[in-house]
Design brief:
By secondary structure, this protein is α+β, with helices and mostly antiparallel strands. The protein is built from 8 helices and 10 strands. Bound molecules: zinc ion.
């Protein structure tokens, strides 16, 4: 399952292909949207926002395409006019003079006015996205210490998109290792110093992963590169304390941690 950094990078790829250029063609498979496609021609895609696994494609005319990929949906970039060879079912095609973006297989798609966007049930449910660079550690701290979340165990809380969107399983285990925290704790049990560290790390690890994961030429980057410290490392030695990394299942997902230094 892709997590926030991978979803944001996919959105970056779509933006790089068509952002700011007038649309020459728009097409939707859903009958309810077909008649509205022509109205988008001539408009520009201003930006593509991510909210967890939802993508919000904002058009210059004020409408937003909401799409949620669930398990099967996938976006592709193609040349203008190109029909990629695939067995997938095309749902959306948005084209400019030179490039097109295509959404396959997803079925959770809607074209929304700003008022409808503000009332969308998924978006009302989901928390702020860790890859939204406007989100600060202070805001995360306030959320962590709120009555709603302060007594929730980290093992479940860090997978709950209502708390923060964009976190997933590898980020959950890496964030807790980085903070030296055991998964059964909650924010109410931490010192102020620990809460500060966790608030900072809840943003820093996803953003480091977004900026550097998969980067081949390490010399081009100054500073830290993202690498897994415990994820998929059961049986290996912890680089911080030398303890043996263990694996279990928490909140129905594989969980990795170092019993030596996560308390
Ligand atoms: Zn350790």
């Amino acid at each position: 399952m892709p997590e926030g950094p991978e979803i944001r990078r996919a959105a970056d790829t779509l933006e790089a292909a068509i952002q700011g250029k007038p649309l020459t063609y728009a097409w939707f498979a859903l009958p309810a949207l077909q008649t509205r496609a022509a109205g988008l021609v001539g408009q520009r895609i201003e930006r593509i926002e991510t909210r967890g696994k939802a993508l919000l494609t904002h058009f210059s005319g004020g409408l937003t395409l909401y799409s949620h990929n669930q398990l099967y949906g996938v976006w592709r970039v193609a040349a203008a006019g190109e029909i990629p060879q695939t067995n997938r079912v095309l749902r959306v095609r948005l084209e400019t003079a030179d490039r097109a973006i295509l959404l396959y297989s997803a079925s959770d798609i809607a074209l929304l006015t700003p008022e409808q966007l503000a009332q969308h049930p998924f978006l009302l449910r989901v928390g702020p996205d860790v890859l939204d660079m406007a989100l600060t550690a202070e805001q995360v701290k306030a959320r962590l210490l709120s009555a709603r979340f302060r007594r929730r165990q980290f093992s479940g809380l860090l997978l709950d998109q209502a708390f923060l969107a964009g976190l997933g399983n590898y980020l959950r285990v890496e964030i807790l290792w980085e903070c030296g925290l055991a998964p059964q704790h909650n924010a109410a049990q931490l010192t102020d110093e620990q809460v500060d560290l966790l608030s900072h790390t809840l943003l820093a690890i996803p953003r480091l992963s977004y900026h550097t994961r998969g980067v081949v030429d390490e010399n081009r980057h100054h500073g830290a590169l993202f690498s897994f410290k415990v994820f998929h490392r059961a049986g290996e030695l912890c680089e911080r304390c030398g303890g043996v990394i263990e694996k279990t299942t928490l909140s129905s997902r594989p969980f990795y941690w170092c019993p030596g230094c996560q308390r």
